[in-house]
Amino acid sequence: MSGPDYGRSFAALRAACPDEWSAYTDHAFVRGLGDGTLPQASFLHYLVQDYVFLVHFARAWSLGVVKAETMAEMKTCARTVDALVNHEMALHVKTCAKAGIEETALFSAKEEVANLAYTRYVIDAGLQGDFLDLMVALAPCCFGYGEIGLRLVGAACNDTPYADWIATYADVDYQQVMVSFGDMLDAAVIRRLGADFKATPRWAQLQGRFTKATELEVGFWDMGLLGA
Ligand SMILES: Cc1ncc(CO)c(N)n1
Which of 8, 45, 53, 207 could cross-link 227 (Cys pair, CB 3.0–4.6 Å)? Predict the structure, then answer.
């Protein structure tokens, strides 16, 4: 199954871990969002955890500003922090408010282990490694949700209660952020590893980080299903 065009680096990373990638993007939780069969309690449980996730995820992207080597890299990272904290999280705040959960409760929600493991893995990739280590650890989250959003919005079921969630990730603004992230990632990879990046020893290590982050996304969906 091919995905949206978010650049060469992402296409190569995704193609090298097909099992992990489909376990993530075609997870039972995702199917339940698409056909509306996901229990509301599971969804709310996930969404509260995802708010906490986005707090730490925004911290990880902020580290990208610190590790950037070009103005284009810095701008993409700064823009993504803005998109996360000022746009994507609005979905969580609005949806939870309708269910009677206030934003202060979201901010102080108890973080589950699968959630904590994921974001701290990403932050550590950036602390221990360089800009590329950080970017490939961030990539599955961003591109995966872009791919899921596009697939679900094109699917038949119109009466899923999760249409707002789907619309957030299928939205042209989110998709545009993904396309520019993909362009920036390609440029960052070529700048550091050269056009033949896939032949470098470094690429195998970066692939390992991407695959691990993809596995941690699967764990996040599992947590969402179990928590309700
Ligand atoms: C767990 C997770 N992965 C990716 C995204 C997309 O930003 C999200 N909101 N949550």
Answer: 45
Ligand 1 geometric centre to CA of 133 (Å): 18
Q: Report which of 145, 48, 162 is spatially closest to residue 97, judged by C-alpha positions.
A: 48
Query: Is residue 4 helix, strand or coil?
Result: coil
What is the Cα–Cα distance from 54 to 119, expressed in whole angstroms? 9
How does pLDDT run across 135-156, given as a tens digit for each residue? 999 999 999 999 999 999 988 5
Atom of ligand 1 nearest to the CA of 84: 7
Q: 199 CA to middle of ligand 1, Å?
A: 30
DSSP string, 125-160: HHHHS-HHHHHHHHHHHHHHHHHHHHHHHHSS----
Q: How far is the CA of 100 from the centre of ligand 1 (A)?
A: 22
Q: Two tokens at 85? A: 């904290």
Query: What ipTM goes with this model?
Result: 0.97
Atom of ligand 1 nearest to the CA of 54: 9
- Residue-wise pLDDT tens digits, 81-119: 998 999 889 999 999 999 999 999 999 999 999 999 999
Question: Check: CATH 1.10.1650.10 for 39-227?
Answer: no
